Amino acid sequence: MFRILTVLLLLVSSFAYADLKLTVFDCGQLRFDDVSAFGLSNEETTVRELFVPCYLIQHNEHLMVWDAGLPLADVGRTDGNSRYEESFLDQLASMGVAPSDVDLVAFSHMHYDHVGAANAFINSTLLIQEAEAVAAFEHPEDNPVFREALYSELINANRRSLNGDLDVFGDGSVRIISAPGHTPGHQALYLELANYGPLILSGDLYHFEASRTLRRTPVFNTSAEETLDSMDKVEQLIETTGANFWIEHSKELAQSLNLAPAFYD
Question: Which one, 14, 24, 168, 231, has least CB within 10 Å?
């Protein structure tokens, strides 16, 4: 009996951790001399630069993109508040990955700095909260941080509309966590990595470390109340799972990460 139980536990463990890899890409940087729009005074943080990441998740034979960086038109720009040296699509190509190879695409939300290459994934299945889809595709003009042209091709893409959390592959290893407030259908991502351990990608639940410490919400959030509730939900998930937590826009964090073509597993 003990041998049978051991075999079953090994099978369950190997299923939960089956070939899951996370690759992090540098998809630009943003600079804000004044951070008051993020709900912080300029004295409460010295940080002025935000990292803009893209992610590729490999689960067995499936590929999934999470967030797609700054607009591709920003690549090579030297003016304005953005810097973007090599496009997400070119970085994928250097790894032998074409947009058509990507089975699933999901964005933490539809703000322009998260969907810059979105239209390239027209053949992927879009995983999006129903509230976010309504805001992005039906009423983009109501949110000035949405740029409809960046994701307009996806209106005709295969879409799975969500109304809450989703176990993406059915084994608990990749879970979309509904966390509205920053936008109507904002979401975070939970990954169960075998070697690195559990990890949560924040989306824009927080932009700065100070945002988390002080529980501050940007003035342009859809709902401050929903944001605070989402903060509580995700912080509880961190506590119960022991997950590492990456504030996606943290440049300090980014400088400590192994970027593509390296990966976490």
Answer: 14
Predicted TM-score of the model (pTM)? 0.92
Q: What is the 3-state secondary structure (H, E, C) of 52-114?
A: EEEEEEEECCEEEEEEECCCHHHCCCCCCCEECCCCHHHHHHHCCCCHHHCCEEECCCCECCC
Q: Which residues pair with 58 in a beta bridge?
A: 21, 63
- Give tens-digit pLDDT for 148-182: 999 999 999 999 999 999 999 999 999 999 999 99
Range of 160's domain?
14-254
pLDDT of residue 144: 87
Handedness of CA 105, 107, 113, 115 (dihedral sign): positive
Q: Residue 46 belongs to a domain with what CATH number?
A: 3.60.15.10
Distance between CA atoms of residues 194 and 188, nearest Å = 20
Would you say residue 5 lies in a domain?
no
